[in-house]
Automatic annotation (TrEMBL):
It comes from Mycena sanguinolenta. The active site is at residues 535, 579. Keywords: FAD, Flavoprotein, Glycoprotein, Oxidoreductase, Signal. This is GMC oxidoreductase. Its cofactor is FAD. GO terms for molecular function: flavin adenine dinucleotide binding; oxidoreductase activity, acting on CH-OH group of donors. Residues 34-352 form the Glucose-methanol-choline oxidoreductase N-terminal domain. FAD binds at residues 262, 580-581. Belongs to the GMC oxidoreductase family. Pfam families: GMC_oxred_C, GMC_oxred_N. Residues 1-19 form the signal peptide. Residues 453-588 form the Glucose-methanol-choline oxidoreductase C-terminal domain.
Length: 602
């Protein structure tokens, strides 16, 4: 919306020579059957595809509805944040009317290409707090998910690399906590912002509420610090660039099929009384969201397992279309229920976001190029020629995490006292999905996001058409508890903006924020301008073995079903108070290890 999309610039970007990336079903070698079929090539699916195929004797098919990521400029240059806009590489979903947003529906982007949302996201990389992982261990009854036991999987995912400008990173992170040998490249910002020193001053002046946090990936998140981002110095690092890099695509036992929209799973029989689901039905007809197609459906079967990794929206939709879900909802649409499980699609949770904008006294903001097509073309040429300049970074300059002392509207939702209730993000320009970009001016945005909401929503089927989007109701700010957190967060950033550290820089709040002068007007501003930070999760939650609720066991295996596992954002029992991509990569790393262990794969 505010960032123009530059996918047709004719950039010369290296197109890898690839051996086993197929675009049409009839290109797949005919006689092949697969041990594992993975649905969806996002954070979860790419890890599974890579790790399971590292044994040459194990055959893997990865099905992805979208196209390849190769050569997609918007998914390569970090500062082209196409993720905020509805683009060619998106599912183009919208939510149901949100009561917490005064009845507004919002756009609900989800990546639709290799890498999934890791190819379109804003690249903040946070592990979540140690308390968060320890709570996952407790909620699932599996100590394998604890912070301590997850360390090795975190290090397998992460490859810390120097920043684009090669600056000295002393006092910007703790290298002792990081790996330089994992898969996804992680780096600190590689181009300075005009307010970097003011951020550090803020942590001194307001040290009680906003202490400096050297490394928010240490397990303890509170405070303000430098953002770690999934950027390989100057270019996006994603599930696709890392786990589906050319050397992995070259594996003869890994087949990746793009443009393959999975329409449902098919029951293949019964194993010791449980329905087995080892067949996947898909089509390579390229149907837009909301369209229809009677084009040919292809069925492919797995010898061992089907692994769903279509994300928090896609996975719930596919399960329901396949007869796994709440009987009442399925019967109403004429779908035969094979397993009645009311937890499928329930408890959808997301992080509400609000862009708080300020006029600033600087000419050095990214507004110069978001408002000027000539200048962005020049900056792209600089990026292309030197791999330097303002486009090497995401729009996120610094991150901060905080708690409220108490919340009158309910019991604490966080995993513990070092886990935040909300997040603030500093951005060096006008960054909003709900307010039109002005034609001139210089701005700073301090985003506030609620990271431990109490509200729960749902994903339900709108129809039996697999190309329709489901009804997505994240129930944003749907509780007084969550609204209290957002009001507290906005109040907190107004205090930051008024600190001495920002004297001479912040001129005044943007008109909508300036008008929020009373509690009622603040609430109206929040309801009118909030949106999502794009973190839907929890729609097919893990629960302990034998639990009466939940969709999967602690290893991702679907309860009371044979041959079917889920490894993506949907299995999280609670949304992490963090940016979730790293968390889902880690689910993938441990999930792959559990699959290999179960089948004796080395
Ligand atoms: C705009 C945006 C910004 C974000 N910013 C950040 C950030 O800064 N930091 C962060 O940590 N997280 C961020 N996220 C969230 C993060 O990217 C996701 O939480 C994460 O990628 C989810 O992983 P996943 O595997 O569950 O799903 P995804 O990564 O979304 O992958 C799901 C894949 O399944 C495919 N699929 C779905 N349905 C079907 C079907 N029927 N047939 C075949 N394939 C299908 C999709 O096309 C997609 O490729 C952002 C997300 C978005 C959209
Ligand atoms: C980086 O900065 C630190 C602290 O200022 C200093 O001790 C160190 O020598 C610097 N490293 C390099 C390579 O210049
Ligand atoms: C989303 O919208 C874009 C722009 O209109 C379009 O190119 C794309 O095909 C759409 N994607 C889907 C899955 O409908
Ligand atoms: C939603 O999650 C809670 C735990 O957070 C659980 O008790 C409840 O059963 C879930 N609801 C459904 C329908 O699964
Ligand atoms: C920004 O540019 C304008 C026009 O060139 C100039 O008048 C102004 O002083 C500049 N402001 C700053 C803070 O550099
Ligand atoms: C846009 O950028 C170009 C190239 O730097 C510059 O010459 C021009 O003055 C800018 N236009 C505006 C309106 O600032
Ligand atoms: C990018 O650089 C290559 C040479 O490395 C050049 O051929 C190409 O024209 C450049 N593209 C742009 C848009 O600058
Ligand atoms: C699974 O089956 C057991 C035994 O029949 C039953 O008690 C349990 O409720 C079922 N769980 C789900 C999620 O269907």
């Amino acid at each position: 919306m505010h960032f123009i999309s530059y996918s047709v610039l004719g950039l010369t970007l290296p197109l890898a020579c690839i051996a086993t990336l197929y675009e049409r079903a009839d290109q797949l070698p005919a006689s092949t059957s697969y041990d594992f079929i993975i649905v969806g090539a996002g954070a979860g699916g790419t890890v599974l595809a890579n790790r399971l195929s590292d044994n040459p004797g194990t055959t893997v098919l990865l099905l992805e509805a979208g196209p390849s990521n190769l050569g997609v400029t918007d998914a390569i240059i970090p500062m082209l944040p196409q993720g905020l806009a509805v683009t060619t590489y998106d599912w183009n979903y919208t939510t149901t009317p949100q009561s917490g947003f005064a009845g507004r529906s919002i756009e609900y982007p989800r990546g639709r290409l290799l890498g999934g949302s890791t190819s379109t996201n804003t690249m903040a990389y946070t592990r979540a707090s140690s308390e968060e992982w320890d709570r996952y261990a407790k909620l699932t009854g599996d100590s394998g998910w604890s912070w301590k036991n997850m360390q090795k999987y975190m290090l397998m995912n992460e490859k810390f690399v120097p920043s684009a400008d090669g600056h000295n990173r002393t006092n910007q992170y703790n290298p002792a906590l990081h790996s330089t040998t994992g898969m996804v490249s992680i780096s600190l910002p590689g181009y300075p912002h005009p307010f970097d020193s003011r951020i550090i001053e803020t942590t001194k002046e307001l040290s009680k509420d906003w202490p400096f946090n050297l490394d928010m990936n240490s397990g303890s998140m509170l405070g303000i610090g430098w953002p770690q981002q999934s950027i390989d110095a100057f270019a996006r690092s994603s599930g696709a660039t890392a786990y589906l890099a050319p050397q992995y695509l070259a594996r003869k036992n890994l087949h990746v099929l793009t443009n393959a929209h999975v329409t449902r799973l098919i029951q293949t029989g019964t194993d010791s009384g449980k329905p087995a689901f080892r067949s996947v039905e898909y089509t390579t007809a390229d149907v837009p969201t909301g369209g229809t197609s009677t084009g040919p459906r292809i069925t492919v079967s797995a010898k061992k397992e089907v692994i769903l990794a279509a994300g928090a929206i896609g996975t719930a939709q596919i399960l329901k279309l396949s007869g796994i879900g709440p009987q009442k909802e399925l019967s109403a649409l004429g779908i035969k229920t094979i397993l009645n499980n009311p937890s499928v699609g329930a408890n959808l949770t997301d992080h509400p976001l609000l862009s708080n904008i300020f006029y600033v006294n600087s000419n050095d903001t990214f507004d110069t190029f978001t408002m000027n097509g000539t200048l962005i073309a020049e900056d792209i040429a600089v990026w292309n020629a030197t791999h330097q300049g303002p486009l090497v970074d995401s729009p996120l300059a610094h991150l901060g995490w905080a708690r409220v002392p108490s919340n009158p509207y309910g019991a604490d939702t966080t995993a513990g006292p070092t886990t935040p209730h909300y997040e603030i993000l500093f951005s060096n320009g006008f960054l909003s999905s709900t307010t039109p970009l002005p034609s001139s001016g210089h701005f700073m945005t301090i985003v506030t996001a609620i990271t431990s909401p109490a509200a729960r929503g749902s994903v339900t089927l709108k129809s039996t058409n697999p190309f329709d989007q489901p009804n997505i109701d994240p129930n944003m700010l749907g509780t007084d508890y969550d609204m209290y957190l957002m009001e507290s967060a906005v109040t907190a950033i107004l205090k930051i903006a008024a600190a001495n550290a920002w004297k001479g820089y912040i001129i005044k709040p943007f008109e909508d924020l300036a008008a929020a002068t009373t509690p009622a007007k603040l609430k109206a501003y929040i309801q009118a301008k909030s949106a999502t930070i794009f973190h839907p999760a929890c729609t097919a939650a893990m629960s302990p073995k034998g639990a009466s609720w939940g969709v999967t066991d602690p290893d991702g295996v679907v309860k009371n079903i044979s041959g079917l596992r889920i490894i993506d954002a949907s299995i999280l029992p609670v949304i992490p108070s963090a940016h979730p991509q790293a968390v889902i990569y880690f689910l993938g790393e441990r999930g792959a290890a559990l699959v290999k262990q179960q089948y004796g794969i080395n």
